[in-house]
Amino acid sequence: MIDYRFADDLAEIVLDAPARRNALGLDDLRALAAAYDRAEADAARAVLLRGEGPSFCAGRDISGVDPRTDDVGQYLDDTLTPLLRRMAMFPAPTFAVAHGACLGVGLGLLIATDVVYVADTAKIGSPFAALGAALDSGGHAFFAERLGIHATLDLVYTGRLLSGEEAVRGGLFSRVFPAAEVRDATARAARQAAAGPTAAFRASKRIVAALRDERLGLWDAMASENRAQAALARTDDYREGFAAFQEKRAPSFTGR
After folding, report:
1. Which DSSP string corresponds to 124-163?
2. Across the chain, how many H-helices and E-strands are there?
3. What residues does each domain of the chain span?
4. What is the pTM of this model?
5. Which of 40, 71, 167, 224 is the most exposed, having the fewest neighbouring CB atoms within 10 Å of its CB?
6. Secondary structure element (H or E) that encloses residue 111, with its range
7. CA distance 234 to 237
8. Long-range CB contacts (< 8 A, 24+ apart) of 34-38?
9. Phi, psi of 49 (to 5 degrees)
10. Of 126, 118, 180, which is closest to residue 153 (Cα–Cα)?
11. Within a 10 A sphere around the Cβ of 235, how many other Cβ atoms?
């Protein structure tokens, strides 16, 4: 079950099936995509994704799935990958709370989110070796880029899960917090972003995506920054930021 809440320019999307550790079936993934569509329609200036109960997301809900008839390739191509792309390209800052089990599809949801704060007790990875399956949801590229080839294949071959501390120390996610504090810390950051200069944030998000997807070099990245800055100089938030700095007061941004 996917819950959607919207207040003060922040969209909160909640995985709300704690009895199954928020494992996601096909209908859940479609509902999750619809929640991101709704957040964009609401002109959300930030998104917070979290899970109810002891886990963020234990992966795909395979209860009742018959591996002899399940078309997993179609599931990945037609449903999961478009959802992850939708999340990654959302036109505003996105945040996620990683706690408890963050496995399989749950790992993919985190990979597709801009900023992830992690509980120290989180268990992160994809124990697909036990299923005779391959790591998916972009996990190979994500792990190899940050952890290196040897560490990636070690995780794949052994099915070992990373703790929150290890995931942050390895550069996978942003910050680690005690489990009792991670939800509030992530919500504070999301609310701060929603009240910030979101046009500038969108520009940075596009540049970082190009660095990842197009492998921009230093000078191409600098040219992208220059174009972004020139465009932002025509926004209300840019003028407000300058005025607030000059007048020694806190800025009031609108995202325009």
Report:
1. EE--GGGGT----TTHHHHHHHHH-HHHHHHHHHH-PPEE
2. 11, 9
3. 2-194, 198-246
4. 0.94
5. 71
6. helix 105-111
7. 9
8. 34/2, 35/2, 35/4, 35/11, 36/86, 36/87, 36/90, 37/86, 38/4, 38/6, 38/11
9. -110, 130
10. 126
11. 18
One-letter amino acid at 76 equals L
Gap between the Cα atoms of 212 and 144, Å rounded: 13
Tell whether the model's pLDDT for residue 92 goes beyond 90.
yes
Q: Which residue has the tokens 């070992």?
A: 160
Whether the predicted pLDDT of 185 surpasses 80:
yes
pLDDT classification of 132: cutoffs 50, 70, 90? confident
Phi, psi dihedrals of residue 70, rounded to the nearest 5°: -70, 125
Tokens linked to 93: 């800052």
Cβ(79)–Cβ(29) below 8 Å = yes
**Res. 55: pLDDT tops 80:** yes
Query: Which architecture, in CATH terms, is 2-194?
Result: Alpha-Beta Complex (3.90)
- Whole-number pLDDT of residue 63: 82
Quick one: three-class SS letters along 210-250? HHHHCCCCHHHHHHHHHHHHHHHCCCHHHHHHHHHHHCCCC
Token reading at 59: 């992966």
Distance between CA atoms of residues 12 and 33, nearest Å: 13
Residues 6+ apart with CB under 8 A from 230: none
What's the one-letter identity of residue 126? S
Residue located via tokens 């080839």: 149
62 pLDDT higher than 80: no
Question: Rg (Cα) of the chain, in Å, rounded?
Answer: 19
Task: For 16-31, write each residue's pLDDT tens digit.
Answer: 999 999 999 999 999 9
